[in-house]
Amino acid sequence: MGMGGGRGFHRMNFDEPVGAVAWHLLPRVLSYYRPYIWQILLVLLAILLQAGLNLIPPLLRKTLVDNVLPSYDFTLLVWVSFGWIATAVTGGLVSVGEAYLNNWIGLRIIRDIRNRMFAHLQQLPLSFFNMARTGEVISRLNNDVNGIQGVVSGTVTSAVSNVANLVFVLATIFTLNWKLALVGCAVVPLFVIPTRLVGKTRWRMAKATQEKFSVINAFINERLGVSGIILGKIFDRRKHESATFNQLSEELAKYQLKDTQAGRWFFMAIRTFESIGPAMIFWYGGLLFIRGEITIGTILAFAEYLSRLYRPVTQLSNLHVDIARSMALFERIFEYLDMEVECPGNENLPSMPPIQGRIVFDRVSFRYGPGPEVLTDVSFSVEPGQLVALVGPSGAGKTTITNLVPRLYEISSGAILIDDIDVRTVSLSSLRQQIGMVTQDTFLFNTTIRDNLLYARPTATEEEMIAAARAANIHDFISGLPEGYDTVVGERGVKLSGGEKQRISIARVILKDPRIFILDEATSSLDSRVEHLVQQALAPLIAERTSLVIAHRLSTILAADLILVVDKGRIVESGTHSELLALNGLYAELYEQQFSAQAEGVLPGEEVTPEPKSKRRERSRAGH
Asked: What is the pLDDT averaged over residues 91-118?
């Protein structure tokens, strides 16, 4: 099958200017806060209370120096000491409560976004997953969503907190002495300029680091998965893979080092500037004290207020960078959330009635995205209960035809009818609930056999599950395992053999009890004994159901009521085995190349020329 079309995703441009804030996303971001508006108001109230409490200690120090110590006032000393302790305790309690509530809000918003993103990803068309790297998708869902946690619980509250502290401190210092206040504010530009420069540098480094993490995640997901590990061992590529990973890690470390070093130089500059402000306050404040204009306590209070002034100025000057970084992460998340879901509006369509099993392809054409047509003008009909075999060269379009029945892809033109109902006019859920598939790439989740079976029908009883396993000829094997149905199968069922995995997947479909069954009969890789067991397991699944089978073995073709020969996206021949051999066309050529050898090595007890299902049913009814 070719690669799917549809929308993919773009790589982030690390060279774009930091000033390009996606402000249009802000209302959408804020919409995630709406369910928690009352908790947010409590957080804002706590922030304002903390900002007010932060003003008290310098004033108490001023009172201590200017009033308590010169007058030897013990009573006032007690009150000042008590006020100091009360302020510290109250501020600590408010801080703990604010931090808890803020984190509570942030984590729930992250949970909401992650849940919505996972649900949305499940609704994206199959073409998206054909194009996307799994590691990239996981990185968006984990790293990017986790990356905005600090944004959600930090940026907004930090901005409000810094603004509140800045306003409160400015009002206080100008009230104490406007001359000293102007001197203290004169140093502010020294904080703003380097903060913005470093912020832009760290912005670029942060984006590059995030992308590098995505690349490493994709690499790890592929190479450390069971299939990747097996491939690496078979081709002895362990040293090469380690060298590639070391190179990726080295590149990541370089970005991280640049990021941390930019911060080191920045903090060194900030500490230098922080010493300039108090020095100027002590110099000019001392001059005013000598003139008798201010007290020593005022000078000490000013020196303490300066640190409370410069810190919010520094953080607010970088707020633009923080918002831009935040919007970049949200933009990556919204890029996925804005992708068009599979068949939008489909949930509003009526449900598919119980299927009888008649399938009609009426001049169906299909292409993956903007590429060439994969199927062209395909038409055929299948009656309820018939077994139809699809044969043809590799890449002819057989799997694509079977994938179109449950609408895993959308046709370009024509129509697909089931029981004379266009499948596009009914909901996907009601359609797919009545269709079962066993694909060539048998997939089992890394959980118990029980969970893998019940994935088809979670409400099934123990008896129904065991009956499905018996029908698939796998119950005895499962019962012989130490933990039985509670045996964990490993990633992609690695602890089981190919035949065991296929029979479990067949039992899973039997438990679903579909009216239409689709099978990519990939048994060629199994030994003859296991292949025979799998075929026995398939017998009850195919019986009395409409079945579309991509045939890989002779007995399936001989048992088919109808054989469709597919070549280059078209149905070039159709008929029974004998009819197609008589045509002496492509089917006869394929039979000679692929299936004649099977006729010479038929398994013991296997039918060489089984009758089609329709003839067997007629003979059975005549006998009754």
From this structure: 87
